[in-house]
Amino acid sequence: MAEPKPNELMEKIVSLCKRRGFIFQSSEIYGGINGFWDYGPLGAELKRNVRELWWRAHTQRREDVVGLDATIIMHPTIWKASGHVDTFSDPMCDCLLTKKRFRADQLEPQSGHAYWYSGATSGPDPETVKAAFARAELANRADIRDRFEKRDWGLLGQELQTQFSESPVKELGRQLLQCCFQAKVSNDAFAVLLPPGKPPESARKTAAEFYRQRGIPNAVLLGERSEPVENSRRFNSEKGEGFGALLTEPRAFNLMFKTYVGPVESEENVAYLRPETAQAIFAQFKNVLDVARQKVPFGICQIGKAFRNEINPRNFTFRSREFEQMEIEFFIRPDEVVQKLAGPVGAYTDGLDVATPQPNWGWELWHRHWVEERVKWYESIGLGRDTLDFHWQPKEELAHYAKACVDIQYKFPFGTQEIEGIAARGDFDLSQHQKFSGKSMEYFDEEAKTKYVPHVIEPSAGVDRLILALICNAYCEDQAPNDKGELESRVVMKFHPRVAPIKVGVFPLLKKKPELVAKAREVRDLLRPHLTVFYDEAGAIGRRYRRQDEAGTPFGVTIDFDTLGEKGPELKDTVTLRDRDTLKQDRIPIRELVPLLLEKIR
Ligand code: ATP
Asked: Which protein residue has the closest C-alpha to ligand 1 atom 3?
């Protein structure tokens, strides 16, 4: 089957998400709200599975990470200390024509010819003037046509008044002059960038629309000049209305949502919806340390909502304004302390085993360890290494306190983009909170007999971006036989069984046979305490399989006449177990179903 183009593919995925109840637009009945998404029945299950698997892998299955569940609104000084109040901003600019807002650093650079205007004055409606000329039989006069084309209404009015004796033409001249005297003026500068080869009329049309929006009808453009432009981000690069229109200068826009705590909306009551979950972990570092019986190196993790007033939410749920993060702050010894205890600090070389922590690990090997751990986890839920990419931030991209940062990226149909960032952040965060709160964040290391502010490695993943990656990764179109054995194309979501929203579909072969239905319900009730089951008795069996293929259900159990023992006692109480991906059907005794399925989904 031909591969769909990336845009087409995303359209199909978005439409399937709505049709099957993975993801809906938030507040859809009111026209939606940009950057906010809801998860329907299948999406909610998928998300729950991802959260649970992450939590289990990083807390229950490790000795050295414990969990936290903190509030969304915290003391506002936290965001002063973290730097978010002063620096958590993106450069934003607006299209002067459409008012659409863009992130200045995400605009496509463009080249062509820019047409600049210093302002405009209003004029008469050219169509009305043209009709008047036609009536006065002046439309073919070259000199008049020329002035008309140039919208030179003042001169034209004067000439009509002085050069013609007939009164209707004189009257037309008088009206044109009056129009000029009463003209509205805008001194707003504007420009339009045209791609090479496009005629200037197109820029003039766009400029006239810009001035019309500012109350200047039938704009007579002033001070037109043009210049070649190369790789500029000053113009709207989005195709459609406004393409090429001048943008405002970039301004810093803080991404935190502000609110007020308490009944008075005053400056001292300002609070923020957290833009990341990490800061609560730093703020609670000492409390957790006191109770968790952990020693550095150890980690604290949290899953929860985060909010960012993104300038330009896009690519479905990829850049949302409300989303969820899964973050770990893993606290480690500073390299000097490692050296004091274990001699030279280990260095990373290609192929070095970083699975098992060693006493001589400094920040670099702990960082590598976490990159590897996270990739292994992605593999365990069906995102193979070949679907991922890694962007190691070069020194000049790193925050001033960071020692290294790698973005784990997924190859989305709309481009390869970050789903998780893993940073070695030194002791920046804890030191900042120590400074702003006045409370010590130091840790006494009994083994090293010294005090220090721990350093941190931070694997920070987004639940929603991961869900989108899993959905894109699972989407597949292939061929499967229908009830008559003929091949039909089908859409199948090939989720890894661990994350699949529904694990098994249970189907009586025929709805009208009470014995089959009773047995199928028995099987459904047997499985339900152990895994998510969808019971379906409506329609042809092939159609029911197809519905579960689209939902990504990895297994289907069908109860047929063999199950009832009608073809001999040896098949009694056996069912067919269908595999969504291989389409293989095996005959399985009912009593073996639970252990077999549990083994496949764990
Ligand atoms: P980007 O550069 O794409 O804005 P970021 O580097 O600011 O992302 P981080 O602050 O490192 O992102 O956040 C960690 C993770 O949180 C990201 O890898 C991503 O999975 C998730 N995340 C961040 N912003 C958003 C968002 N607006 N919508 C959905 N997920 C997000």
From this structure: 418
Q: State the Cα–Cα distance between residues 224 and 191, nearest whole angstrom.
A: 9
Å from CA of 58 to ligand 1 middle: 20
The residue contributing the CA closest to ligand 1 atom 13 is 460
Q: CB of 113 closer than 6 A to ligand 1? A: no
Average pLDDT over residues 84-97: 94
The closest residue, in CA terms, to atom 24 on ligand 1 is 319
Identity of residue 186: S
pLDDT in tens, 343-384: 999 999 999 999 999 999 999 999 999 999 999 999 999 999
| Nearest Cα residue to atom 19 of ligand 1 | 462
What's the whole-number mean pLDDT along residues 44-71?
97
Q: Read off the pLDDT of residues 243-287 as tens digits, 9 standing for 90 and up.
A: 999 999 999 999 999 999 999 999 999 999 999 999 999 999 999
Is ligand 1 within 6 A of the CB of residue 462?
A: yes
Q: Is 195 helix (H, G, I), strand (E, B) or coil?
A: coil
Q: What order do you get walking across the sheet with 251-254 strand by strand?
A: 101-103, 89-94, 251-254
Is the Cβ atom of 322 under 6 angstroms away from ligand 1? no
| C-alpha distances in Å from residue 277, one per residue of 50, 257, 283, 348 | 17, 14, 11, 30
CA within 13 Å, CB half, 233:
12
pTM over 0.90: no
Residue 498: HSE in the Cβ half-sphere, 13 Å Cα cutoff: 16
Residue whose CB lies within 8 A of the most ligand 1 atoms, among 393, 465, 468, 470, for a mutation test? 465
Q: How far apart are CA 175 and CA 42, in angstroms?
A: 68
